[in-house]
Specification:
- The protein has about 300 residues and is an alpha/beta fold.
- The protein has one domain.
- It is built from nine helices and 14 strands.
- The chain has a four-stranded mixed β-sheet with strand order 1-10-11-13. Strands 3-4-6-14 form a four-stranded mixed β-sheet.
- Helix 1 packs antiparallel against helix 4 (about 110-120).
- It starts with 12 loop residues before the first strand and ends with a strand.
Length: about 300
């Protein structure tokens, strides 16, 4: 993997102030250039299993549209520990592969770029594995809001379609409108402190809740005027790619401190290719692992 450009606003956060709602709707369809969206996502670490050359381990599956053809699937993990669990499974089931495999930090932009390319090239796909506890937290929120319902042991959308899962992102929203709340933060970078306004979306609900609780001590009105909402990663990316609202360029995805620390530790000496640039990625059979996503060209 190439190094992450830098590791998002959280790494240098000094202090922050929650402001007013930032954009009219988070799901408007009215566009940020793809290059700009990928540049924003290039700051966000996710995790892959790679070989000793830094090439991603992929797996093949039959193309649902044509069983005679195969899809090469690139797997990304939001949580480093989930990637480590998958690596341990590979070491058990495929010791020759596992012997030289490792967990590597990668940029989320690489996963999204593969997903976009898969729309034109059905021979490749991407599977982004969310953290199970965070997905469960998202489901609970969506049930509370009425966006999901449970019938006969199945989780359905409010219009009766099966819930397909995804990678949840949590954000603070205006209670009346649902509009995301922006943050004005003091950031320290290269020994200098500067002010930046951004709209944070968190992979970890507890992390967001902790920061909101601290902000509410200083601004009690936040308690009655705001609440935590959730959106799936693929929906947010689709919004960023389809809106010409310049405020969308202020969106920042906030990884956990643990994920950032792991990526920082690796960034010093990791000079391998990004997954979407690797010419000959290693392709062992997929390990028999459960509990991950199963999509091939969607952001789970």
């Amino acid at each position: 993997m190439k190094r992450l450009a830098h590791l998002g606003v959280l790494a240098g956060l000094v202090s922050s102030l929650w402001l007013a709602p930032a954009i009219s709707r988070y799901d408007i369809a009215t566009a940020l250039p793809e290059e700009q969206v990928l540049r924003i996502l290039n700051n966000v670490p996710v995790f892959m299993i790679t070989n000793d050359k830094g090439e991603p381990l992929t797996f093949e599956m039959p193309n649902p549209q044509d069983q005679s053809k195969k899809i090469q699937v690139f797997t990304f993990f939001v949580n480093q520990q989930d990637a480590q669990t998958a690596l341990n499974t590979i070491k058990t089931q495929q010791p020759e592969v596992g012997r030289v495999a490792r967990v590597s930090a990668a940029a989320l932009s690489g996963a999204v770029k593969i997903a976009l390319e898969s729309q034109k090239n059905p021979a490749i796909g991407v599977d982004i594995i969310p953290s199970r506890p965070q997905l469960e937290a998202a489901v609970n929120l969506l049930k509370q809001s009425g966006d999901l319902v449970e019938r006969d042991g199945k989780i359905l959308t409010k219009d009766g379609r099966p819930f397909m899962g995804g990678t949840p992102l949590f954000f603070l929203a205006d209670s009346k409108t649902g509009n995301p709340i922006a943050v004005e933060a003091q950031l320290r970078e290269n020994g200098q402190t500067r002010t930046q306004r951004f709209i944070p979306f968190y992979f970890d609900k507890t992390q967001l809740q902790r920061e909101v609780d601290q902000a509410r001590q200083q601004r009690p009105e936040l308690a009655k005027d705001t609440g935590i909402r959730v959106v799936m990663l693929d929906n947010l990316v689709a919004t960023m790619l389809s809106t010409n609202d310049p405020v969308a360029g202020q969106i920042q995805l906030v990884q956990t401190p643990e994920a950032i620390q792991f990526a920082v530790q690796q960034s010093g000496g990791n000079n391998a290719q990004r997954p979407n640039q690797a010419n000959q990625p290693a392709s062992p059979q997929r390990p028999n692992q459960q509990g991950g996503g199963q999509g091939t060209n969607r952001n789970r």
